[in-house]
Amino acid sequence: MDGPNNGIVLYHYSFSPYARRVIWYLALRGIDYAECKQAPVLPRPDLKALGINYRRIPLLAIGRDVYCDSRLILRKLEELFPDGALGASNPEEKAIQKFLEIWAVESGVFNRASQLIPSSMPLLNDPKFVKDREDLTSRPWSKEGIDANRPEALAAIRSGFQFLESTLLADGRDWVLKTDRPTLADIEAIWTFDWLNGLKGALPRDLISAKQYPKVFAWIERFNGVLQKAKAQAPKPTSLKGDVAAQRIFNASFAEKDLGIDQADPLGLRQGALVEIYPIDSGSRHHDTGHLIGLSQDEAVLHIGSEEKGIRVHYPRTGFRIKTLTVGGESKL
Ligand SMILES: N[C@@H](CCC(=O)N[C@@H](CS)C(=O)NCC(=O)O)C(=O)O
Q: Which domain of life is it from (predicted)?
């Protein structure tokens, strides 16, 4: 992709575990990029300036295309920067990689992990943060609510550690796909567990430590070692203020050309239909509106904003709801 920093701008904040998936990927590949740091709570005027209401982090722009959701971002980086891609190459390994993604993100392992944030953490005494996360998750973030969820969350996470120890890592391999360096499958499997390991007080060490799960903890350490080296060698991300990032995006060309509409999509949507789209697992109160210009089994793409100044925003097809907007029964086209 043309333009400075490969035309990439990553919107994130540093303690976001979902954003780390993307940061690690970029570092392991040594891809140069720019970043636009965001506050950990709303409002996010830098995204509003792009016309985006989607509230979750990370988002990644490549040229004038913006990708929401780390799942889609990783897929697109694989596809648009194929030289030295980190993804699996044969169908069996691709299946493992995909199942790991679904396991952590859509089947709720990370959701359980987030319920292990200790209720004593100072951030949870900040009413602004608590209110923001209640908006995100539609569940109470009171100390009582968090403590009540802990036993079930712990059971789920323990079973995750056990699963990795006794299956994928059981034969003593260094990396999930038996490669000589970490691949995307390692990122898909490790990020939730690495995050919990670094979050003071999240894991009860008498139950979950290198003693019970030596292979998992050695893998986490090995991964961090490789990551630190890769970060030291990779180009340092260029930091952009929101207005500069927006100008870069608005002035860039589109990263992707031929976007078609999947005729077999169950919604039967037409090219150009005015729709709104939002995630159904969290952040569901924040809807984006635009004209549908691409739809496949992998993604939905909206044109948001004016013809000249607008951008294309991409969302994963799964985990999102698309609704046609109508006025008096007619599509507002
Ligand atoms: N499925 C999404 C989930 C993203 C997500 O939940 N991100 C968290 C940060 S780790 C978030 O946005 N939290 C609320 C916020 O920052 O607004 C993805 O893979 O990107």
A: Eukaryota
Pick the residue whose CA is nearest to atom 18 on ligand 1.
69
Helix (H) or strand (E) run with residue 275 in it:
strand 274-279
| Smallest CA separation from ligand 1 atom 12, residue | 56
Ligand 1, residues 42, 52, 56: which to mutate, most atoms within 8 A of Cβ?
A: 56
Look up the CATH number of the domain holding residue 107: 1.20.1050.10
Mean pLDDT for back-to-back runs of 10 residues, the chain (333 residues): 92 96 98 98 97 98 98 98 96 98 96 94 92 91 91 98 98 98 98 98 97 98 98 98 98 91 96 97 97 97 92 97 76 47
Same domain (yes/no): 99, 222: yes
Who lines ligand 1 at CB under 6 A? 16-18, 40, 55-58, 69-71, 105, 136, 282
Q: Is residue 224 part of a domain?
A: yes
Q: Which of 197, 217, 233 is the last residue of a domain?
A: 233
CA-nearest residue for atom 2, ligand 1, is 69
Q: Is 29 in contact with 86 (CB distance < 8 Å)?
A: yes
Do 193 and 308 fall within a single domain? no
Report how far ligand 1's centroid is from the alpha carbon of 327 (Å). Answer: 32
pLDDT at 138: 87
What's the pLDDT at 17?
98
